[in-house]
Amino acid sequence: MKLQEYRSKEILARYGVPLLAGEVATTPEEAREAAARIGGPVVVKAQVLVGGRGKAGGVKLAASPEEAERCAREIIGLDIKGVTVRTLVIAPAADIAKEYYLGLILDRSAKAVTIIASAEGGVEIEDTARTNPEAILRLALDPLIGLQEFQVRRVGFFLGIAAELRRDFGSVLRGLTTAFFETDADLAEVNPLVVTTDARLLALDAKIVLDESALPRHPDLEAMRDLNEEEPAETAAREAGISFIKLDGTIGCMVNGAGLAMATMDLVKLAGGEPANFLDIGGGAKADRVAAAFRIILGDPNVRAILVNIFGGITRGDEVARGIVEARSTLTREVPMVVRIVGTNAAQAAEILRQANLITADSLDDAAAKAVAAASAAPGSA
Ligand code: GDP
Ligand code: MN
């Protein structure tokens, strides 16, 4: 889960990272009032979960509250990489002497949490990695010991931090690292970390990405989720306990088990179709979860047919079949549905499906072929 800049800063501030937090505003008037409270020049910043806001016109300096209001009017509603700006942060403006990049990532290839640092800050680190890779330092942390003092010094020297700021730099790097581990983050970065003209270190921009699977143990961080920027289908899936990933095809898939879902998608492709999604309804699926899965699948206007593939182990086939029939009566859009249920109580399931006039299949190959045929026969298909 990606956190907005102001949320990320809220967390980093708790770990002693020096920054100018500012205030959140959602209207030009609020922006003016916030700027008046702050006093002096401010920076008006779009809060969207995409990088490069500066280049897109989403970060502006304002010398007065009136100017802050004008900037806010320009930024609110702005489209940045497909996301509409709704929220702003108004923060005291800093006088920048030098910008750095400092981040920690979970580097799967290094099998270690890795510090990434560069004196070419401010710009996106991916660009520096491409154009000037030797300007980037990567330093893996020992998984048992964590951040060591010699590493703090090494990063500080690499960046060329002035002697009188090295102690402060240590606090920034230690704070960022502790925040990374204690929040179960996948990424924690400050870009830019700046030295101001009056020789202070400040985190001007922050980005934290949390491990979704660790969120159950951080209810306070879960509360920072920004539903405005999440696909509505993904929100609905998460709330129903369904694993869902939207894809671009026309055949909606409803499957129990991640491996079976992958195999189902493969067979859809083998039969000449394209899956519209990955969807795992999980074990012991009951009628309400089946209904939620159908609503999520049918929310995608590209879907022309649905392939249901259930292996009954602990999950009872007849219960899923009943769930399908029940759910179907509540759906707003009709598309052909091919259902394959094998395993526990498969015979009862087949009987229930037959009575409801659903297309059934005995094998997965057969089911995929029928779903692909139904999708290409459906109105609106190419
Ligand atoms: P991003 O483009 O989405 O990464 O947004 P940032 O918050 O990093 O801002 C982009 C750039 O705007 C920074 O690299 C700075 O150069 C500039 N900027 C941001 N805040 C301030 C500020 O307080 N003062 C000044 N002078 N520039 C700022
Ligand atoms: Mn930035």
- Tell me the distance between the termini: 36 Å
Low-confidence stretches: none
Strand coverage percent: 15-25%
- Mean pLDDT across every amino acid position: 94
Number of helices: 13
**Radius of gyration from CA coordinates:** 26 Å
Indicate the percent of residues in helices: 25-40%
Sheet with the most strands, sense and barrel status: 6 strands, antiparallel
How would the global form be characterised? elongated
Tell me the number of strands: 18
Structural class: alpha+beta
Bound molecules: guanosine-5'-diphosphate, manganese (II) ion
Q: How are the elements arranged and paired?
A:
Elements: H1 5-14, E1 23-25, H2 28-38, E2 42-46, E3 59-62, H3 65-75, E4 79-80, E5 83-84, E6 88-92, E7 96-107, E8 112-118, H4 125-131, E9 136-140, H5 149-159, H6 166-182, E10 185-196, E11 201-203, E12 206-210, H7 219-222, H8 232-240, E13 243-246, E14 251-255, H9 258-270, E15 277-280, H10 287-298, E16 305-312, H11 317-330, E17 337-343, H12 346-355, E18 359-360, H13 364-377
Parallel strand pairs: 14-16, 16-17, 17-18
Antiparallel strand pairs: 1-6, 2-3, 2-6, 4-5, 7-8, 7-10, 8-9, 10-11, 10-12, 13-15
Helix pairs in contact: 2-3, 5-6, 8-10, 9-13, 10-11, 11-12
Bound molecules: guanosine-5'-diphosphate and manganese (II) ion (MN).
Characterize this entry briefly.
This protein is an alpha+beta fold and 382 residues long. Helices cover 37% and strands 25% of the residues.
Write up what this structure looks like.
With 382 residues, the chain is α+β, with helices and mostly antiparallel strands. Helix content is 37%, strand content 25%. The protein has 13 helices and 18 strands. The protein has helices spanning 5-14, 28-38, 65-75, 125-131, 149-159, 166-182, 219-222, 232-240, 258-270, 287-298, 317-330, 346-355, 364-377; strands at 23-25, 42-46, 59-62, 79-80, 83-84, 88-92, 96-107, 112-118, 136-140, 185-196, 201-203, 206-210, 243-246, 251-255, 277-280, 305-312, 337-343, 359-360. The strands form 5 sheets. Strands 7, 8, 9, 10, 11 and 12 form a 6-stranded antiparallel beta sheet that branches. Helix 2 runs antiparallel to helix 3 (65-75). The radius of gyration is 26 Å and the shape is elongated. The chain starts with a helix and ends in a 5-residue tail after the last helix. 40% of the residues are buried. The mean pLDDT is 94. The structure holds guanosine-5'-diphosphate and manganese (II) ion. Guanosine-5'-diphosphate is lined by residues 43, 45, 51-54, 59, 61, 93-94, 96, 99, 122, 191-192, 204-205.
